[in-house]
Amino acid sequence: MRYPDFLKEGGTIGFAAPSFGCNIDPYKSAFDNALKRFKEWGYKTVLGPNCYAGEGLGISNTPEKCAAELSEMYASADNDVLITCGGGELMCEILPFVDWEKLKEADPKWVMGYSDITNFTFLSTTLLDTAAIYGPCASSFGMEPLSQSLEDAFKLLCGKLPEVHNYPKWEKDGFKDEEHPYEPYNLTEDYKQRVFIPETGSTDAVGVNNGVREIAQAAAAEISFKGRLIGGCVDCLVNLCGTRYDKTADFLERYKEDGFIWFLECCDHNPMDMRRAFFHLREAGWFKYVKGFFIGRPLHYGEEMFGVDQYNAVTGILGELGVPIIMDTDIGHLPPQMPIISGALAEVVAEDNSLVIKYDLK
To answer: What is the pLDDT of residue 205?
Structure first.
């Protein structure tokens, strides 16, 4: 696994829009404020040609132009790291035009983003053997005041955060809009993770579901597992599965001695979509050598369809794998989110309603 150099003090941050661009508010104003903040912190900034573009369908520009921007900025010596402008819907369409050979030959570079940016962070790990950061996009850094989770993401980009942890509260309903582009997270909901382990391994259960027991975290002993981190937004992953860019099986074999920790979260998927997606990935063999899962709160939080909810949509499919499943964690579309290094070795520790991820960059 290749680990890029971390951002140094006074370094240059590049911004690209391989998915959505910051062409409309609240994203445009928030991005402008983020650029101001980075400069006040002493960093230089370089913007790609699509950062303020809105010419494409579901992405900032045409697939060809988005791919060219990403390929050229990644290989360029004019920036030290890349933060993507935003998520979106159709970044998958740029993949045929990305110069993957150029990226392989280039010095590794940190790229940070989430949601639709899974189309790069996942493939960077599995195709290029290069770690990437599944974390906030650029416009989020424009909020006032800055969330602790955003500070942590930037510390990680600078190599100053050897481990990450959950946050006390999360946002169910945000107030950021065109009139309030700098609005911070509306942190009203208490963090409460749910932990499921194989049925035979539990003596302190609050329920049994599909071969796994849910553990009462307040009384549970520490649960930990180690492996190499891999994952992202399930909406994107299930779309990549089976395409010519899906070299996941080869990646799993290369690093099978490490085992794998999958970090996963859903955006547009309702509970039925979630269950179908997890079935698809399981049957495609993606979860071979898995050591454990941690799964973020879905955007469709709390929904139920014909008895299927966000929990049994997962446990009913992944329970048979016989590994811990930690749910409602701080990753994904209901902030705040812990920044995750895709490709890194890590230890995940869950105890007393807390989650800690300890990185080992080798």
So the answer is: 40
